[in-house]
Amino acid sequence: MELTLNNGVMMPALGLGVFQSPPEQTTAAVQAALSAGYRHIDTAAAYGNEREVGEGIRRSGVDRTDVFIETKVWVSDYGYDQTLHAWDKSAGKLGVDYLDLLILHQPAPDRFEKTIAAYKALETLLADGRVRAIGVSNFMPHHLEQLLAATTVVPAVNQIELHPYFAQPAVQAADAENGILTQAWSPIGGITFYPGWGEDRRNVMEDRTIAGIGLAHGKSPAQVMLRWHLQQGRSAIPKSTNPGRIAENFDVFDFELRADDLAAIDALDTGVRSGPDPDEARLERFSMPIPEA
Ligand code: NAP
To answer: What is the whole-number distance in angstroms between the Cα of residue 120 and the centre of ligand 1?
Structure first.
């Protein structure tokens, strides 16, 4: 299933995420995904595994041109020249001569002018054919408004925290109004249950409504959540390093949620995020350097 971006580029709706995939497991995870039928991988300079993603693609035997490669520029590389160079680092590690989608990992609220300069570098990379589409991540409507006022190319994608417990309807609406595709990170709610991120979170994977819908369709909670994204027109990039779960997360094209299933999942939104607030400057994290290729 493919989605058409606002510049006509086609993107497979479902991709493999690799945040927190240890480098030594990433190559095998990417190979498993490509063999299960995925044709879209979402990585980031900040994940420290672009090299292994590239290796997985090469080892899979799938043609590079048949794989949609998405990666992200980290905040420490924001600024016009720095972001042009961030392309060299990411493309070099991935071992490719073009990227399919390059996005800014998040707004940097303490240096928004550098965020804008970084985006202008993405516009240059797009014009030069070094990327096929450009976009943003974790941009709230007020960030989008500022960005759109200062730049020319409307982002193709805004990748945001989005799962049944935090669906961000206002961001989805702002994206839609501007022709930006919403892409869900933590699409199966990873941020609500990955270990070590706080004990007070409610695990969406254990939600009874979702389990009930899954039972009715003979599908797992993860499959129900992914189908909810797809039927509402979003891209989703579930992460797993487990071959069985990688295959499970792609086995979502043989059933259809009913309107009342979708509404029941929509009603689970708590309006409370589990991930970092995009308006908060996390200076220590922002300063993490990205190594050369
Ligand atoms: P997620 O994909 O919603 O969930 C991942 C977690 O779920 C992992 O702990 C995984 O463990 C487990 N899992 C995977 N499939 C499962 C299944 N079928 N049943 C039960 N558990 C399952 O969370 P995420 O990693 O936060 O988000 C996905 C991707 O979005 C990331 O990998 C990254 O590419 C992107 N992301 C972007 C941002 C951003 O700021 N732009 C932030 C976070 C994430 P196993 O590996 O053991 O299966």
So the answer is: 30
